[in-house]
Design goal:
Blueprint (H helix, E strand, L loop, with lengths): L12 H19 L4 H4 L10 H20 L21 H12 L4 H17 L6 E2 L6 E2 H23 L7 H18 L5 E5 L3 E5 L13 E4 L1 H8 L5 H6 L3 E4 L14
Parallel strand pairs: 3-5
Antiparallel strand pairs: 1-2, 3-4, 5-6
């Protein structure tokens, strides 16, 4: 008998909403302290400067409010776990929309406006609401999990580009880690390799002999931020192994051909 299909991971909607709001607040306070020299630095994300990256984070919140202002979508077309695979083709469109929406306004103004719009929109819409999105219609509850991913990834980008130490909410970090781990398992289904990202996630992936008890023969283990950087193409698998940020044992425990999970 084939193994039962794994049910999608469930997230606590109230905790995810709170995490999105709190993480955006952390970035808002940090961006307000950046000087001109820091804002002009390369962000490490494409050809964006730190100012471009900071503006994009403001747009993440503003676009959430805009999505909730539109008429609801008809049916759910995309779940949170499928979202990482649907974003790459829209990168250019998103950047263009962000520039048009933001209009070059000063960052403090952008963040103040985005925070107010997002708070009002979230207060008046249930998690079951279906958003009409370019990437595919999603429930608000699922889309908020993806906002955790965006905010955590870009908070880490800002920290590395500026030398800041912007806090990352534990709930947001957990959601980001779990979603990207589950996406890996969806991309390479199977049970021959166990990927451990303590304390937030353990998934099995890659076709082959399924492990059932005892010590798995093929194990990959890393910490949440290292995993997120690998999964989004910000870190190299071989370099992470060499630096001991990833530990891999077993002949199948090579994820290099499956990374990044999300571009």
């Amino acid at each position: 008998m084939p193994p039962a299909k794994k049910k999608p991971r469930r997230y606590d909607p109230a905790k995810i909403r709170a995490a999105v709001t709190a993480q955006f607040g952390h970035v808002t306070r940090a961006v307000g302290e950046l000087g001109p020299e820091q804002l002009e630095r390369p962000s490490g994300v494409g050809d964006w400067t730190v100012a471009d990256l900071a503006a994009h984070v403001a747009w993440i919140a503003d676009s959430l409010a805009s999505g909730l202002a539109r008429p609801p979508g008809a049916v759910v077309e995309l779940t949170a776990i499928e979202w990482p695979f649907a974003t790459a083709s829209l990168a250019g469109k998103i950047s263009e929309a962000a520039r048009e929406t933001l209009g070059g306004a000063p960052l403090p103004e952008l963040y103040e406006r985005a925070a107010a719009r997002m708070a009002k929109a979230l207060d008046t819409n249930p998690g079951s609401r279906v958003l009409d999105l370019w990437v595919g219609d999603m429930t608000l509850a699922d889309f908020l999990v993806t906002r955790c991913v965006e905010l955590v990834v870009h908070t880490d980008d800002l920290n590395r580009a500026t030398g800041l130490d912007i806090p990352i909410e534990r709930q947001a970090l957990a959601a980001c880690t779990r979603l990207l781990a589950d996406a890996l398992a969806l991309k390479a289904p199977g049970g021959s390799v166990e990927v451990r990202i303590p304390p937030f996630a353990v998934v099995q992936c890659i076709e082959g002999p399924r492990h059932t008890r005892g010590t798995p023969p093929n194990v990959v283990e890393t910490d949440p931020l290292s995993w997120i950087r690998l999964a989004t193409g910000r870190a190299d698998w071989a370099a992470a192994l060499e630096d001991a940020r990833v530990r891999a044992s077993g002949e199948r425990a090579d994820l290099s051909g499956l990374l990044p999970v999300m571009r």
